[in-house]
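From the shared-data thread, chain only:
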Amino acid sequence: MADSLNFEYPWKKNGKAIFLVNQSSFSNWSSGGQSSISGTIKFDYTLNYSEYGWDWDTKIIGAFGLNKISGSDFLKKTDDRIEINSVVGKKFSNNLIGKWSYSSFVNFKTQFAKGYRFSKDSNGNNTRTEKSRFFSPATTQLGVGLYWKRDDDFWVNFAPITGKLILVDRFFTKDLKPNQSFFGVKKNGNSRFELGASIRSFYKTEIYENIILENRLSLYSDYLDKPKNIDFDYTLNVTMQVNKFVSANLIFQFVYDDNEIQRIQIREVLGIGLNIDLQFISKSGYKKAL
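Structure, as tokens:
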């Protein structure tokens, strides 16, 4: 029935899961070194809808990684995040450089497991102090503005009116001093609301055969508190595809959050990955189902 009506399925779906592993081992190594092993599981799923002048682009990202170092009492996280980005746009202009749309977007971020700050006690023993957990913090942004899209691999969304809600557990705020805050939330509080402007962009390209470069950038300024202190989150992901199932991945992430720590946070991960294709629902499969 769908074929006879020349029905075109408006959805595009694609995604992948990657298992990254890093390992080093030393034995009687004169220059020193500690054996270690780490593993990270990542998934990245994209949904794109385009019909009747509407574009709806959603990306779901999850990652969790652990590292074990010889002689350490604790496992340490190398990655931990849950992120959902969704942009809906209604086209008002279309030209050679891309489509312009009125837009609305939502962004949600949190983490899977507890995070710790590691140190040593007065006796030199390793200790850890909990500093975050699932839904603490959890950050949601909702904004309206303009959406420019060249294609699924290159777009920019500008939202001059963006509300931001930060949720935390009172476990982290009950013992704060009056001049302290936890991700911007004051003593005995569990939420913080901000109103500001947001810019989000995505760019993906093949810079050489089987080498994919993916860029994600997020900027946010709070109108109500220190608008000049701009929060940013930039991630560069380089994938070098060996074959259908194996790839090498290099990730750089730079984060600045004025409510968290007023310093640039830097993360780098390099590993060999095993790829799993998540595109199990195809256009042809949908037509057959009809």
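The helical segments are 283-289.
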